[in-house]
Amino acid sequence: MSTLVECPVCERLVPESTVNIHLDFGCTSSQVPSTSSSSTATFPAPARRPSTEGGGQKGSNTGGKKAPSGKKRKALTEEDPATSSSPAARPPPSPFASTSASTAQASLTKRPRISASTRSFLEAAKLLPELVRPQTLEDFVGQEHLLGQGAMLRGLIEADRIGSCIFWGPPGTGKTTIARVIAKATSSVFKELSATNATTAQLREVFTEAENVLKLTGRKTLLFIDEIQRFNKAQQDAFLPVVEAGTLSLIASTTENPSFRVNTALLSRCRVFVLQKLTQDDIYRILVRALRLLHEQRTGETLPVADVRVKEEDVRGQDEEDETPNDAARAVETDGRKGESDKGRVTGENTMDQRKSVDDESAQATANTTEPPDVDPVFAFTGPVDPPLVRFLAAAADGDARVALSSLELALSATRDTNGKISRDELKRSLRKAHLQYDRTGDAHYDTISALHKAVRGSDANAALYWLARMLEGGDDPLYVARRLIRMASEDVGNANPLALPQAVAAYQATQLIGMPECDCILAQVVVMLAESPKSVRTYKAYNAAKKLVKESENYPVPLHIRNAPTGLMKQLGYGRDYRYEPGYAHPVHQPFLPPELAGTIFLKDDDSVEGKTYDEAALREWEWRNLGGKKWEGREEMEKKFAVEAEKVEQRGDSESGTARGSGD
C-alpha cells in the first residue's frame, strides 16, 4: 500500500513508491510502472480527486494539492481490486517485466490528456499552413544560409546545443517552424508561449518548473516566446536571471528589429539569427509540398518527387492573363535622365525588343524539344490548381509562406463558378494586391522612408517616386510622409532652392485638407521638385557643428556690448556699452559677436569647399559611365585643383604644428 504524493515537477498525484520512476520517464504520462512484476500502479487523472468515505459528496479539482490522510478519506493504494478483477479494465503489465510485449503494450495504453474525439476536432480545425508545417530540417524549405548543410544554426540544432537565440525576419519566413523543429529534435524540455497573451505569472510558473526539472532530472528547458517584442520591459527583464544562470534557454521570434524592441541586457545574452524573405522558388516548392501532403493524407499514395523549381521558360510561356505582380515592374520602360548621352546606353525600347527576341527564341527551343518539363506528378490530381496558378500564388505572396498557403487553401476549397471550382481570374483578382504587404510601424516603415529620403538626396526622382508609392499604397500615413518632406527641404535642399521649404509646407497643409487618395499627386509633385532641386547641406552641417560645440564646451557668458540693457542699472553695469548699430553707419564696421573664447570659430563653410569631403576616383568614373556615357564630368578639373589646394593647406598646417612641437620641446 502506498499513499499518493505530489510530483515536484508536474504537480500530479503519483504513488509514493514510484515517484522516482515517474521523474525518470520525464513526467510524460499519468501511469507509472510498478517495481513489482506482478502488479501495476494506477492513479487517477490530474483533475480528479478520490471519492470521500461517505460517498455523498463528489470530489473536486485538487489543483495539484496533496491528498489528505486520516478518517475523512480512505488511503489510496497502488492496487484497486475493482479494476484488477476485470480483465478488460486491468492495466498493462509493467514495462520492467521480462517480456518485450508488455513494454509495447504499456506505451500504447498511456492515458491521453485530450480525448480522441476532441483531438480529431482540433486537427480538423487546423488551417493549411499548420497542417503542412515541417517537422524536420529535411522538410524545411528556404533559409539555406542558416539551415543548409554546414550552416551554423543547423549544426547547433543537430548537436542539441542551440542555447538562447532570437529569430528575426519578415512574417511567413519560418521563425515559428524552426522553433517547432527544435522542439522535435532536442532532448530538453520544450515549452511554448506567445507574448500576445502570456502573463508574468505564467512566466514565473515556467521558470519554477524549469528549475525543478533541472534539479531533479538534469534536463534543461527550452522556452519559445513568439512575438517577443510584445513583452514590455519588465516582462523581458524577468528572463535575465534564469537565462544568466542557465536554468533555461530562451528561443524568441520577432518581426521587428531586436535592437530597438528587445532589452539590451537580454539581447546581449542571445544570438540573433536573421531570416530572409523567401524567394519565389522557395514558395513554389512549399506549395507543391503542401499539395503532395494533402494528396498523401487523402489517398495514402506516395508520389515520386520531381524538380519543382520555378523554371524561367515556364514563366515566359504564360499568357498575358498569367502576369505576376513582379512582371509588371519589369515591363516598365524608363526614360534617360536629363543630360545623359545615348552612347553606351540601352534604351527601354531596345530592351523590350531584345526581351521579345529572347522570348521568341526560348519559345521556339521549348517547342522543338521532346523532353517534357519537370512537373510534379501531384498536379495530375489537383484539377484547376495547375503549375501556372501555383506560380502566380508564389509570386503574389511576396515571400510570405503563410499567405501563399492560405491562398492555396482558398483555391482548393472555393466553389464559385459553374464548374464547381474557383476560376483562375477570380482568384487572381482577389490576390492581386497581396504583394503590397507593408508594415506601417515596423522596420519596413523606417526602411522605406529612409530609401525615399536617400533617393531625394541623390537626385533620383524616379526612385523617389517608387518609394513614395510603396508607402502610400501600403497604407502609410500621408501626413507622416509630408512631415518628412519638410525636413528634406531644409536638410538636403536648403538655401540652394529657398522655395523648396514653403512648397513642402504647402503640401503638408494640402494633405491635411483633402487627404488620401487625392493628396498622392501633391506629395509626388513635391518629391520630384525636391529630387530635381540643387542640393546644399551647408546650413545643416553648420548647425550640427555649432550644436556639437555647445554640448562639448562650457557656457561662455554673453559679451557685454551685445547684451540687452532695458534698465538704468544694467546700463551702469556696462550692458550694451560700445555696441555699434550697423544700419546707422555709412560703411561696414567690425564688432565681435561670439564670446572671446570662441573668436575666429567658423561653422559655415563655402559651398564649393572640399574640406572634409571624399574624392573617390572609382566612384566618379562609375557615375560618368552610367550618366554621361563615359564622358568626363565638366567639374572634374576644377575639383582636382581644389583638392590639390586643400592638400597643400593640410601639409602646411602639419609643418606648422610640428615646428611648434619642436620649439616647445627645446
TrEMBL record:
Domain UBZ4-type, chain residue ranges per copy: 4-32
Biased composition (Gly residues): 53-62
Biological source species: Rhodotorula toruloides (strain NP11) (Yeast)
GO molecular function: ATP binding; ATP hydrolysis activity; DNA binding; enzyme activator activity; single-stranded DNA helicase activity; zinc ion binding
GO cellular component terms, A-Z: nucleus
Comp. bias regions, Low complexity: 29-46, 96-107
Composition skew (Basic and acidic residues), residue ranges: 309-318, 330-359, 647-656
Annotated stretches, region: Disordered: 29-114, 309-377, 647-666
Keywords: ATP-binding, DNA damage, DNA repair, DNA replication, Helicase, Hydrolase, Metal-binding, Nucleotide-binding, Zinc, Zinc-finger
CDD domains: AAA, HLD_clamp_RarA
Gene Ontology process terms (BP): DNA strand elongation involved in DNA replication; DNA synthesis involved in DNA repair
Protein name stated in the entry: Werner helicase interacting protein 1
